[in-house]
Amino acid sequence: MTAVESEPAETPEQPLSAPLDIGFDYTRSVGPVLGRFMAALAQRRILGVRGSDGRVHVPPVEYDPGTAEALDELVDVAGEGTVVSWSWIADPLAGQPVQRPFAWALVRLDGADTALLHAVDTGGDPTSVHTGQRVRVRWADEPVGHIRDIAYFVPVADPPADAAPTAPAPPAAATGADDDTTTVDTVVTPVQLSYTHSASPEESRYLRALADGRMLAQRCPGCDKVYIPPRGACPTCGVPTTDEVDLPDTGIVTTFCIVNVPFLGQRIAPPYVGAYILLDGADIPFLHLVLGCEASEVRMGMRVRAAWKPREEWSTTLENIAHFEPTGEADAPYASYAHHL
Amino acid sequence: MTEVAVVAFAQAPNVRRTHGTTNGVEMLVPIFDEVYTRTGLSKTDIGFWCSGSSDYLAGRAFSFISAVDAIGAFPPIHESHVEMDAAWALYEAWLKIRTGEVDTALVYGFGKSSAGELRRVLSLQLDPYTVAPLWPDSVSIAALQARLGLESGRWTEQDLAEVAARSRRDAADNPRAQFSGETDVATLLGSAPTTEPTADPTADLVADPLRRHDIAPVTDGAAVIVLASAERARDLADRPAVISGIDHRIDTPSLGARDLTTSPSTRLAGEAVGTDGVEVAELHAPFTHQELIVRDELGLGDDVRINPSGGALTGNPMFSAGLARIGEAAQRILDGDATRTLGHATSGPALQQNLVTVLERG
C-alpha cells in the first residue's frame, strides 16, 4: 500500500488543548541541621541556628550566608514575634497555608535575628495586619515534623475567633534511626500543578484524523521525509512540515524490547513487547505495543497491522489503536529499514 | 582572549497567551529566520547553541528537547541548555567564544507562561524545605519587598507609578510589547479620571501594597541573540555590539536574612563590568520597585535612558525577558543610536540573582 496525498483543510482549526494535572510527592532528605529543626517542630518548638556573626537564623541555614561556615549551634526561639513586612493575598492559591484571604508576612521571632516567611491569618480582614504587629504561632493539630506544622500565625491581640481553613496537611516525616524522634531524616512535600497542554497545529490535525480512524502524516518540504506524528519543525531542516499524507495502518517493527518487569500502573501482564512501528510510507517510527503472538516471536522487520479498538471508543488519541499484531507476511529485508534505526 | 559581540537580536511578539505548544517551536522558527536573514548566516554556520527555558513552565520533563527541533538539529549540533533565563545561556555562549572553541553562537530563550498558573509555579524555585511547601507566590514575595521600601521611605507609591507610566509610554515604540499606552502617575494611582476603558485603578491593589501597574504581565514569548567573535562580527553586522563586560552574582536564598531593599549581587556585578558612561540601560525589573533597586545598585544617574523598550513591565516572557534586555541594549548600538549600553537580567525571587553586561560600539 502506498501513501496517498490528502486535501488540506479549507479552514484553519484551533489547535487541540486539554487539562494536564501533574503531581508528585517530593521526598527530601533534610540533613542534620534541618533534621533537628523539623523534629523540634513536631514537638511544637522552633529552633534557629547561630551564624558566624552571632545572628540567629530562623529558619536555620546550614551554612552562614556571609562566611559559608558550616553552622550547627541550634537554639530555641519563641513562638511569638513581630511582623517585619507583609502583603495581602485576597484569593489564596492552592496549597497556601490559609485558605481564606490572609497576609504573607516576614516574621522576626523573639530570639531570632532573621525573619521567617509565613502566613498570618486575621480572619480574612485586610485591615487587621500591620508592620510591627505582634503575632504568634498557631500550630497544626497533629505536627509531623514539617514546616507546615506551623499552620499559620495569628495576631497576639484580637486573634480571629475561628480557626482558618487550611490546605491538606503534609504526610508524616520519617524520623531518625531507631525511632530517634529528636531528628527527622526526610520530609515529604506533595506538589500538584495544573496546566493547559496544547498540541501543535500539526499534531492537532493528526489527532483529529485519528478520531476518524486515519493515520495522517506530513512531509517536510525541505527533505521530503514523512513524519507521523507531524512536527512543528522538521528536526533536520528546522521548517514546519506541511504537505499532508495519509498513511496505511500497516508497517514493520524496526526495533523492540520485551518488558519483563512489573511496574506501578502497568496495564498488561508481562512479558509483552514495546516496539518501534514504522508505517509503510513513513520515515520515522513511533512506539506502540505488539501483541497477538508470543513475545519471543517478535523480530526486527516483522510485518504488523493496527488492531483498532471498537469505533465507538475512538477519540483524538493514538490509543484508538489497541496494539499492533503480525500480518503473517514475509519479513521486510534489513536493508529496507536499516536507515530508520 | 577573543572579544565577543552581539550581531543580531530578535524577539517574538510578547502576548498574554499563544495557541502554541510549550516547546516554543512556533515562536522560535520565525525569529530564527529573522536573525539568519539579518546576518546572512544559516544553521550550519552556527558553532554553538545555548538555550534557557523551564520544564516547570511546560509541565513536562525535557521540554527543551522538543524546542531543538526548531533548529533543525540533525546532523547533531553542539548544544547546551540552562534552566534559567537565557541571559545565563548567553553567558555560557560568551565563554565558549572567549575560549576560541567556536566563533559564532546562537542563544535563545522561550516560555509559555500561560500554560500554568505562573505565580504559583514560580514558588517551586524557592527553598524546598522551609519555604516552597508554603507555596508563597512570586507576586506576594515581591509585595513584601515593596512594602519594606515604602515603609522605610526608600521609595513612594508615586515613584513606583512613575516607573510604570514611563514604561507604558516607551512601549508605544516597541511593536513587540504586550501593551503600552499614554498614562501618568495620577491616572495610575486613581487620583485622575481613567482614560483606559479596561482599567479600574481604584480597585487594583492586587497584592497590597502592589497595584496592577507595579506587576509585569504574564507573557508568552521567545527571544534570540546571535553572538560572534569580534573578528567574525565585522562580516555579520555593520555596527556589532561588543560585550565589554559581563558578570553575574547571587544573594542568599534566605529571604528573611537579607535587606530586600538592596541587591548586593547587582552591585557586585555592576562593579565588575564597570557601568560608567552608559547611555542606555535595559533593566529586567518585573516589578516597579525592583527597577529602582537595580538602578541604584548600578549607580545609573538621571542622564541614563532606562528601558526605552518599555521593559519587562510591558512584556515579561519568562526565560527570555532577561535575554531580551541584553538584545534591546545591543540593538541601540546595532542601530547606531548609542555607543555604550547596559543590559541586566534577573532570576529567582526578589532579585536574588543578577547578571549585568555592558556593550560598546566595536
Name a few traits of the molecule.
heterodimer; A: 341 residues; mainly beta; 3 domains; five-stranded antiparallel sheet; 8% helix; B: 362 residues; alpha/beta; Peroxisomal Thiolase, Chain A, domain 1; ten-stranded mixed sheet; 10 strands; 32% helix; globular
Q: Any overview of this molecule?
A:
Chain B: This is Thiolase domain-containing protein. The complex is a heterodimer of chains A (341) and B (362). With 341 residues, chain A is mostly beta strands. Chain A has three domains: 1-16 and 199-247, no CATH class; 21-193, no CATH class; 248-341, no CATH class. Chain A is built from three helices and 20 strands. In chain A, strands 8-7-6-9-10 form a five-stranded antiparallel β-sheet, with no helix packed on it. In chain A, strands 18-17-16-19-20 form a five-stranded antiparallel β-sheet, with no helix packed on it. The radius of gyration of chain A is 30 Å and the shape is elongated. Chain A starts with a strand and ends with a helix. Chain B has 362 residues and is an alpha/beta fold. Chain B folds into three domains: 4-118 and 218-236, Thiolase/Chalcone synthase (Peroxisomal Thiolase, Chain A, domain 1); 137-213, no CATH class; 242-361, Thiolase/Chalcone synthase (Peroxisomal Thiolase, Chain A, domain 1), CATH 3.40.47. Chain B is 32% helix and 19% strand. Chain B contains twelve helices and ten strands. A ten-stranded mixed β-sheet of chain B has the order 3-2-4-5-1-6-10-9-7-8. In chain B, strand 9 (340-347) and strand 10 form a beta hairpin. The longest helix of chain B is centred in the N-terminal third of the chain and has 15 residues, at 25-39. The radius of gyration of chain B is 19 Å and the shape is globular. The chains are: A mainly beta (341), B alpha/beta (362).
